[in-house]
Amino acid sequence: MTTETKENVVTEDHAEHHEMGFWGKYVFSRDHKAIGMQFMMTALFMLFIGGGLALTLRMRLAWPEAEFMGVDMKQFGGETYNVLFSMHATVMIFFVIIPFLVGAFGNFVIPLHIGARDMAFPFLNGLSYWIMPLAGFVMFGGILLEGVEAGLKSGAFASGGWTSYPSLSVIAGYGQTLWCISLIIVGTSSIMGAVNYVTTIVKMRAPGMTFGRMSLTVWSIFITAILILFGTPVLTSALIMLILDRHFGTTFFTNDGQPLLYQHLFWFYSHPAVYIMILPGMGIASDIISVFARKPIFGYKAMAAAMAGIAGLGFIVWGHHMFQSGMNPYLGTYFMIATMMIALPSAVKSFNWLGTLWRGNIHFTTPMLNALGFVSMFIIGGLSGIFMAATTVDLMIHDTYFIVAHIHYVLFGGSLFGVFAGITYWFPKMFGRMFSETLGKIHFVLTFVGFNCVFFPMHIVGAAGLPRRYAAYIGEGASKTWEHMQPYQQFMTVSAIVLGLAQVFFLIALIYSAIWGKKAEKNPWKANTLEWTLDSPPPHGNFHPDLPTVYHGPYEYNSALVEEDYLPQDRKLEAAGVGGDDGQEDAPSGEGTA
Amino acid sequence: MLAMALVAMLLAAPAWAQEKSADAPTAAGQEAEQPGLFWMPDAISTYGEGVDDLFVLIFWITGIAFVVVEGLMLWFLFRYRNREGREKAHYTHGNNKLEVTWTLATVVILVFIGVVQLVGDSGWLTIKTGYPEKDGVVQPGTFVVRVYGEQFAWHFNYPGKDGKFEDQRHSFKSPTNPIGLDDPAKDKVLPKLVVPENVNILIELNALGKYDANTETYTHPVLHSFFSPNLRLKQDLVPYHPGKIWFKIKQGTAKEGKKYEIVCAELCGEGHSNMHAPFLVLSEEDLAKELGYDWKTAVPAKFPEPVHYHQEQKEAE
Ligand SMILES: [Cu+2]
Ligand SMILES: [Cu+2]
Fold first, then answer.
1. Dihedral sign, CA of A340, A345, A348, A352?
2. B136-316: CATH number
3. Which of A130, A142, A224, A495 has its CA 20 to 30 A from that of A448?
4. Do B65 and A558 touch (CB under 8 A)?
5. What whole-number percentage of chain A has pLDDT above 90?
6. What is the count of residue pairs from A and B with beta carbons less than 8 Å apart?
């Protein structure tokens, strides 16, 4: 493999289109870095849309019958409320988290980390980005056609939750069809990206870049891409069946059909999707923790194996979303045990992060704080998952705020902190300037505290059985069982406003740093991976004139072989002999041509 | 060190919250329930407390794991922070023995948590498959109810004096006959669930489609979920596929005279949050008054085979 790689690298292609106009360079670019940044900017924009939806529904929950500055909270009840949370989840999952972690970091980091000049299929890569806005337009087509108010009345928006279970989704308004088509487009974009990532990683690694010397970020995205390739077609088929049921008279999910079939198909994709949304975060956090603890990652092979284990097990546990759905209880027993097993690789990863910190030399930079935020919040999310994996305990907390707390600890506390860590870490490579440490730290503290104040109390109300997807828990027509818990709702809402403002602050900090930030040198973090041998930002085609040759694993910090506390992957050591032998006992080297 | 303060706050949160919710019911009126352990409402089913015990068990296991792991992390962050005199990190790629140890320990704990879900009177299979029914025949002395959930109401169908459930057809529906019973006078249909204590209760769950007799238009039934936090029981109503649940109310619940609720826990449309019904545990006398007959002399042997709208249409042809 190592010798082969050199020939597979596209060189000519890139030397040619150096002369590009504004459109070619910034808009319809085929450069993986530009495409990555496009994904990032789009996801950032959508983050504020999803966040705005979240704040609206939080306001409604805290004061369902009040009026603020002329806005009557009553109007956000009923169907409107269902639209709000359906769109919040859809936007955050499909237009924020996945584009951030897979689209932005996948594109930006993979070629730089493996020492390639670009992705294997640059055009396909550009296309995978450009069909995302199309998906967005389809999703929100109702607004464009009818305006918000009329659209809400005529069913122009999906309101069946991000899960869109039939039969509700079969009888819902036309927005449900738009939703299905939009997600099919998003899925197609994911598949295009995934094909590209897998091919690039398998075929285009620089000489000496064995699988055993790949960074965990690359490993994580590699595994994520495989998950996407196996999972997404199943979701697509479920969505197509749903469209057929809605418009073409089939009865896959109604009449003599099986409503649970949709749930099985949906979760067959959507459980792995949770890992699609967390694995890249794990990879990014691993890299950052190793850099700023100035220490090799603890158990590199175990870390990569744990991610592969999560991916494999991820496909046989989907039924844990269906314990109370009417699925055979014996099948539920199996899914419980399988799900308990999937907690194992997650636990192994957490222990290994701890091991990496142990006896390190820890620098509290902004990326490091966010990576640590990721780890500590992911631990809570992982532990709370055990409650729901336990079938009997799930009787009480299924479909309550307990699951809402759990998923937000994983996807916000986990994935989104991973995103913040990634942005602030690669910011110098992206913009050529440093992300302001002061502003970054303020953002981290506000977000960390705000996040916990919003989502931790959800465990408490969830344990009391508070059902999710309710438009109000007090007032006219509402259930009386949880009235006494209204102060929690208000506390969570006030915290959510702080959390929202913190993200506005992040946007300001990002713009400020991109324009007035300190100029970044090549390797500001003194990190080992290949992107830090390049200018900030790296030129089109990345590596000039020759591809780098890799001699070491990515985590050689404080190695005894060199004076400095880091050892770039492409630095050849005289004493270490030929062909990339690191001379470490259990160093991740040599297994090569995996 | 802010992180440390935050963790302390998180740990203190439950205690603070418990204090808070303890005074809350007085403000919310008599109907609100005294929250029990971990803010949970009273457990009134025979298996409810067992379910809570399992929750508490996992709470302690995960709680200890949380404190140990996050505590170690904070300690490492403090102890190994970069500072004057600390310019080197310890160079190691890991420790296989340690990896194997913590992996095995985690497996043992997780399997333990999984297995305890299954055993005993509050075990998963007892709750979900231990129906007071054998080969489709209801055991004598069982209180039997047929529940219909539609957008957005609950209907509770009791068998009536004849101890037999009427057949149900969408075309029979009318304002006075909301679920479309063959002969509504022979059954009892209430908008609330009333049950006796200390006997097995068997409920059939049906999702009911919308039928407009004037226009003869029909809308598919949608998913709902029968949820009573006090029973610690939840079960979805699956369109076209009737489901079953069973429970038994603890002795002494009736005389407390509290009002409980059945709520819907699966998104079913715009009225989802308002889809709840009163749920009362009554003494035998009060129950006879509500139902208009003595249920013990009228226990149906089985539920009739359901006929769905599309089958109804075929029948009509
Ligand atoms: Cu899952
Ligand atoms: Cu409902």
1. negative
2. 2.60.40.420
3. A224
4. no
5. 79
6. 331
